Amino acid sequence: MQIRPTTDQDYDVFVDTLHAAFARFPETAGEDGRGVWWAALEMDRGLMAVAPDGRPVGTAASHAFELTLPGQTLAPAPGVTAVGVLPSHRRRGVLTAMMRHQLTDLRERGEFLSVLLASEALIYRRFGYGPATYTARMTVTRHQSAFAHPRAGGVADTGTVEVLKSSECADLLEEVYDRYRRAQPGALSRPHRWWERAAGQPPISPAPRYIALHRAADGAPDGYASYAHGESGTMKVDEVIAADDAVHTALVRYLLDHDLFTEVAFKHVPADHPIRWQFEDFRAAEVAGDGDWLWVRLLDVPRALTARGWFADGELVLDVDDPFLGERNRYLLTVRDGKAECVPTDRAPDLSLDVSDLGSVYLGGTAPSTLVRAGHIRTHHPAAAHRADTLFRADRSPHCLHWF
Question: Is 134 a catalytic residue?
Answer without folding.
Answer: no
